[in-house]
Amino acid sequence: MPAKRIIPCLDVKDGKTVKGVNFENLRYAGDCIELAKKYSDSGADELVFLDITATNEKRKTVVELVHRVGKNVFIPFTVGGGISDIEDIKCILKAGADKVSINSAAVKNPDLIKDCANYFGSQCITVAIDAKRTEGDYYVFINAGKINSGLKLIDWAKQVELNGAGEILLTSMDFDGTQKGFDIDMLNIVSNSVNIPVIASGGAGADAGHFIDVFNKTNVDAALAASIFHFDTLPVDKLKSELNLAGIETRRLVK
User: Fold this and answer.
1) Residue 40: its pLDDT value, please?
2) pTM of the model
3) Can 51 be counted among the known catalytic residues?
4) 77, 76, 55: which is closest to 66 by C-alpha?
5) C-alpha 224: how far from its chain's center?
């Protein structure tokens, strides 16, 4: 089994880290700079920073905050939120990010994926997909989960790969924040249908078995979580030790 990645996620609103359930009822979860440094120091393989209200507020990601986070981490760092063109990506990468995540803008203009991949390379482009089960199938939602795009998840995932994305960050809106485990069925639908890395997101709880299951029962390359890391219910280093004991290798070894 290839080495897997454990990725803490910083959902940021008004410069503060927040977390909700099913994309609603946000609560304060800590200072994003302090959390980023903690995760970098404790063995996280990568970090994702999402400015979750940038798109709905029709503004760009807060570049200064990205710069401050980038100065405090020494692991790959992905930034998303309000990114809609090549100039946005230039600013984010210049501020210190290694990759960018595009979501709503890609759905509205699929050629954006091609343009960005051609300009920066696929390795810099992550396409985030927020999906939930509606009328017997999985559909893609945009604008922080507020709008059903009408796109079926499987169709969009294949299109994302075809257009040149380097990886997919797939969030189950049904499982988000519930801490009941990952959406294995949805993750299998996508990870078995594309040949690019898939990051599992939504539903991770304090039980390391949730991560063991997602790596043993699906083809995902990485697992992302927020609440359990922010509130230290399952610290990154403890989780990685449990994964190692279960025979699941991760990118960065636990000391």
Assistant:
1) 92
2) 0.91
3) no
4) 77
5) 6
